């Protein structure tokens, strides 16, 4: 994830060990080890742009999630939330690119924002809620500094890591199908095709057309297939919308059009509005449970995402480990604190980074490109509405399909391997949370190997993770037993 990969080490990467760097290699190549990781500047730029386009929805979705009232009845302004979301995403993603040198983009974690909105804000003020983000970010950074976070990641068996990658693939594919309107919550069944068992409206057909176009381009091995598909779908959507063919109400995230001026000044009114006092009103136990929940959301979702994207990018060794991750992991942890100070929720690595990896991104240069686009959105927020949600969703489905290819690495004849991998893969989309899939895989792996008399193969960290995840699944009854709400 940092300067190590499964690719042969380049002379640029060996420069720090006394090997002379050949002439003709640009400083950009030497700094990001572009050639050493089998990439090019064009691929990195294309990957960075693709990742941004797949993540741009967060600028609208995060303010929507955080739009509720806090315990004092106050709300956060939408314009200020968009600024905070864009600023925190830009800063953390740039840090990941320049310092972590990994093709990972960060933005407001939807799981973290959901916890803040549904569990924290009703009992606290918004500044106090953002203070909780800072606290959980500091906790994760301490886990990184002590080396515990990387040890935990490396303790997970290789087959389970492949399962995590596949589970994330199904998870983001489901997100893509759902956001596009292709899949709906059914009336007679849990889910259905479209709102009434059939596809309805131009936008969802545009999603299907964009999806097929990308698959066809990939089948022809055309570089930039995902980006070409997104741009083509956006152009078609804008034309159809401009001709009045599509009812504006049919678009899930708004019609693909420029509303008013393309330039807007950022609103930093939420920056620095963080409070650490007043938590005594809700009780120390409640604060502890909130921190525990936020750490789980920020820690294991990011861990699973890093494993999935890192494996897809070829940045893991033959045992599925990604040594030298300390910088990237520290930045991910710092994202919690940065997001809290900015007022836009804790930042975490986004699974949409896989879209850039799918376009060939292998280095931190792609993250720098993505970060610069987020920074530009501070002044060009209206432009984020041009790419329809239905078009961007097609890229998620494509990447999900690509990540499922890890199934070929799993020994399905071994029950101790197949069952934990199966539970990990299916529970991520079925529960709509990455953490639940990881938890089920870890617990079942420990239980089955213990039943087989192979408990010694697990290691102390797997036993520790099993205990943590047992608490995670039993958190609600534990809270009831302790009288915590």
UniProtKB/TrEMBL annotation:
It is found in: Endomembrane system. The chain crosses the membrane at residues 49-68, 80-106, 126-146, 158-179, 199-217, 224-246, 287-309, 329-351, 363-384, 391-409, 421-448, 460-482. Keywords: Membrane, Transmembrane, Transmembrane helix, Transport. It comes from the Bacteria. Residues 1-21 are annotated as: Disordered. It is a multi-pass membrane protein. The keyword Metal-binding does not apply. One of its GO terms (molecular function) is purine nucleobase transmembrane transporter activity. Its main location: membrane. GO terms for cellular component: endomembrane system; plasma membrane. Belongs to the nucleobase:cation symporter-2 (NCS2) (TC 2.A.40) family. Azg-like subfamily. This is MFS transporter. It comes from Streptomyces lucensis JCM 4490.
């Amino acid at each position: 994830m940092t300067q190590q990969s499964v690719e042969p080490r380049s002379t640029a990467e060996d420069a720090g060990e006394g090997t002379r760097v050949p002439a003709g290699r640009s400083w950009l190549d030497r700094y990001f080890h572009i050639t050493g990781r089998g990439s090019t500047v064009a691929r990195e730029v294309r990957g960075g742009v693709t990742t941004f386009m797949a993540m741009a929805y967060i600028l609208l979705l995060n303010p929507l999630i955080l739009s509720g009232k806090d315990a004092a009845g106050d709300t956060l302004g939408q314009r200020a939330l968009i600024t905070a979301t864009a600023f925190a995403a830009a800063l953390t993603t740039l840090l990941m690119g320049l310092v972590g040198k990994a093709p990972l983009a960060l933005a407001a974690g939807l799981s973290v924002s959901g916890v803040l909105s549904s569990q924290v804000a009703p009992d606290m003020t918004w500044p106090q809620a953002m203070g909780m983000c800072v606290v959980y970010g500091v906790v994760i950074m301490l886990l990184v500094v002590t080396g515990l976070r990387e040890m935990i990641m490396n303790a997970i068996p290789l087959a389970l890591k492949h399962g995590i990658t596949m589970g994330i693939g199904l998870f983001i594919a489901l997100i893509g199908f759902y956001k596009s309107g292709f899949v709906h919550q059914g009336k007679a069944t849990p889910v259905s095709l479209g709102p009434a068992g059939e596809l309805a409206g131009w936008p969802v057909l545009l999603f299907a057309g964009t999806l097929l176009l990308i698959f066809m381009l990939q089948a022809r091995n055309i570089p930039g297939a995902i980006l070409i598909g997104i741009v083509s779908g956006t152009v078609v959507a804008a034309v159809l919308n401009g001709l009045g063919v599509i009812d504006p109400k049919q678009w899930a995230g708004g019609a693909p059009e420029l509303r008013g001026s393309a330039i807007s000044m950022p609103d930093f009114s939420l920056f620095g509005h963080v409070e650490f006092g007043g938590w005594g009103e809700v009780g120390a136990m409640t604060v502890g449970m909130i921190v525990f929940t936020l750490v789980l959301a920020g820690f294991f979702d990011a861990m699973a995402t890093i494993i999935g994207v890192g494996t897809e990018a070829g940045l893991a060794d033959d045992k599925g480990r990604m040594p030298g991750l300390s910088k990237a992991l520290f930045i991910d942890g710092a994202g919690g604190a940065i997001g809290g100070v900015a007022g836009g929720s804790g930042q975490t690595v986004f699974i949409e980074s896989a879209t850039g990896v799918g376009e060939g991104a292998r280095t931190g240069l792609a993250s720098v490109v993505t970060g610069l686009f987020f920074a530009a959105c501070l002044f060009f927020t209206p432009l984020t509405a041009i790419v329809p949600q239905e078009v961007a969703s097609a890229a998620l489905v494509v990447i999900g399909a690509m990540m499922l290819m890890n199934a070929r690495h799993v020994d399905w004849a071994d029950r101790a391997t197949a069952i934990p991998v199966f539970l990990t893969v299916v529970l991520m989309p079925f529960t709509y949370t990455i953490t639940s899939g990881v938890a089920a895989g870890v617990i079942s792996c420990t239980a089955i190997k213990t039943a087989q008399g192979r408990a010694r193969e697990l290691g102390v960290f797997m036993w520790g993770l099993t205990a943590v995840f047992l608490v995670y699944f039993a958190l609600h009854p534990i809270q009831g037993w302790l009288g915590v709400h």
